[in-house]
């Protein structure tokens, strides 16, 4: 499984890179703030949203601490998607939130 740190994601955003970030936390967690422009798909709904994702794109998976996003990464890899898990999750995120 490919991994990236929260700091590396923040640096890519600051460089102006367009990232495809999927936040798999629950609604109440996301309400406390998410990475700007991240798509919110709760982990339990991910398998039902596959048709909304593009296989050619690379996705960065985010959750609170990195565990659920790790499971999401493995699931999407198994479906043929290009995915990276953000280690440490939002607990490690020091960048802007919306």
Structure commentary:
The chain is an alpha/beta fold. The protein has one domain (2-91): Rhodanese-like domain (Oxidized Rhodanese, domain 1), CATH 3.40.250. It is built from 3 helices and 5 strands; from the N terminus they run βαβαββαβ. The chain has helices at 6-14, 27-30, 67-78; strands at 2-5, 20-23, 39-40, 58-62, 82-87. A 5-stranded parallel sheet has the order 1-5-4-2-3. Strand 4, helix 3 and strand 5 (82-87) form a beta-alpha-beta unit. The longest helix has 12 residues, at 67-78. It is globular.
Shape: globular
Top-tier CATH class:
Alpha Beta
Q: Determine the strand fraction and express it as a percent band.
A: 15-25%
Instruction: Outline the biggest β-sheet.
Output: 5 strands, parallel
Structural class: alpha/beta
Overall residue-averaged pLDDT value: 97
What order do the SSEs take from the amino end to the carboxyl end, as H and E?
A: EHEHEEHE
CATH topology: Oxidized Rhodanese, domain 1
Helix run count = 3
Low-pLDDT parts are: none
CATH architecture assignment: 3-Layer(aba) Sandwich
Helical amount? 25-40%
How many individual β-strands?
5
> Could you give me the name of the CATH homologous superfamily?
Rhodanese-like domain
Present the secondary structure layout.
Elements: E1 2-5, H1 6-14, E2 20-23, H2 27-30, E3 39-40, E4 58-62, H3 67-78, E5 82-87
Put the structure in a nutshell.
This protein is an alpha/beta fold and 98 residues long. The chain has three helices and five strands, in the order E-H-E-H-E-E-H-E.
């Amino acid at each position: 499984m490919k991994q990236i740190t929260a700091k590396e994601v923040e640096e890519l955003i600051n460089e102006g890179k367009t990232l495809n970030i999927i936040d798999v936390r629950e609604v109440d967690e996301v309400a406390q703030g998410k990475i700007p422009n991240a798509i919110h798909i709760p982990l339990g709904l991910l398998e039902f949203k596959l048709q909304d994702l593009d296989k050619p794109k690379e996705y960065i998976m985010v959750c609170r601490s990195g565990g659920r996003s790790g499971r999401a990464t493995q699931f999407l890899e198994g479906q043929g998607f290009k995915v990276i898990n953000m280690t440490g999750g939002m607990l490690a995120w020091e960048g802007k939130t919306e």
